[in-house]
Amino acid sequence: MAPALPRLLVTRRLPKEVETRLAKAYRAELNADDQPMSEAEILDAARDKDALLITPMDRSFATGIIAKLPASVKIVATFSVGYEHVDIAAARERNIAVTNTPDVLTNATADIALLLILGAARGAYWGERMVREDRWTSWSPTAPLGFDVSGKRLGILGMGRIGQAVAKRAQAFEMELHYHNRRPVAPDLAYGARYHAALDQMLPHCDFLSVNCASTPETRGLVNEKLIAKLPDGAIIVNSARGDIIDDDALIAGLTSGKLAAAGLDVFRNEPRIDPRYRSLDNVFLLPHLGSATRDTRIAMGMRAADNLDAFFAGRRPADLLT
Ligand code: 8YV
């Protein structure tokens, strides 16, 4: 008799191709109506499971649920590259493997970073609104005006895979590139960007600052009043990484005082319940966390999570093991 398939809980609905694969290889409990699950619901459903496939919205994995999981759970695969929503130390302590989905969303997320740069600089929000609200009544040489991107200086905060892909794209826009990272990257991965070992040294060179680092205890709130003060006047900040890296009070103060010309945000602290003050600012270009939101990329992320689960249950080391 063939051994019983591992039992898997999937906390959100995934692309059809991914669910079909998971349903073949696992005794999978899928989330057909895509209702986010509470901590209690996850714990209840996890009772008879060997594996959990979760998303960054399952924030309880950072705040204590891991200690309460039944002993049957041996692996937690997150459908994301970011894993600040998983308490890795707690998982290690319980000998639960954790995996993520890097690489496959690098291009899609870097594309969104460029969209934020262009959208914030060129007035994508107010321009679109003018057309939709029928307020585009004449053309004028002097208004409305945005800001050039080509030839401007871009500072990349966090030169991992996504930061590098942002640099590669920005090079085509003839931007002067700078980056800050814990360590310099190999020259062929820097796309001509100049390394600044100290973030403070890079800031005066940033007409644009693109946030591309992970959310960690060190980076949370990093983009604060002091950091913004060191940027050139009229700088533009874009964030396609995590909302909590930015101090919302400081960013909103910079946008309203004129210190900052604009911002482009795809991610927010407490999303989707974002700081409501952003909604009334004309100089911010806002997106609802679309970094990896293409069909191809979401399928690839699901397949990557499935590859990790398959490897684990075949007794191999998953490619994206974090524990
Ligand atoms: C989304 C991301 O969170 O992978 C990440 O870390 O931020 C994004 O891809 C994605 O929607 C995760 O489910």
What does this entry look like structurally?
The structure is a single chain. With 323 residues, this protein is an alpha/beta fold. It has two domains: 7-104 and 295-313, Rossmann fold (3-Layer(aba) Sandwich), CATH 3.40.50; 106-286, 3-Layer(aba) Sandwich (Rossmann fold). The chain is built from twelve helices and twelve strands. The protein is elongated, with a radius of gyration of 21 Å. It starts with 6 loop residues before the first strand and ends in a 10-residue tail after the last helix. The protein binds 2-keto-D-gluconic acid (8YV). 2-keto-D-gluconic acid binds at residues 55-56, 79-82, 105, 291-292. The site of 2-keto-D-gluconic acid has 9 residues, from loops.
Structure at a glance:
With 323 residues, the chain is an alpha/beta fold.
The string of secondary-structure elements, in order, is EHEHEHEHEHHEHEHEHEHEHEEH
Please identify which CATH superfamily of the largest domain we are dealing with: NAD(P)-binding Rossmann-like Domain
CATH fold description of the largest domain: Rossmann fold
Structural domain tally: 2
Number-wise, the strands total 12
Per CATH, the architecture of the largest domain is 3-Layer(aba) Sandwich
Low-confidence spans: none
Q: Enumerate the strands of the largest sheet in spatial order, edge to edge or round the barrel.
A: 8-7-6-9-10-11-12
CATH class of the largest domain: Alpha Beta
The helix-and-strand class reads alpha/beta
List the helices and strands and how they pair.
Blueprint: E1 7-10, H1 16-25, E2 27-29, H2 39-45, E3 51-54, H3 65-68, E4 75-78, H4 88-93, E5 97-99, H5 106-122, H6 124-132, E6 153-157, H7 161-172, E7 176-180, H8 187-190, E8 194-196, H9 199-202, E9 208-211, H10 225-229, E10 235-239, H11 248-257, E11 260-265, E12 284-286, H12 295-313
Parallel strand pairs: 1-2, 1-3, 3-4, 4-5, 6-7, 6-9, 7-8, 9-10, 10-11, 11-12
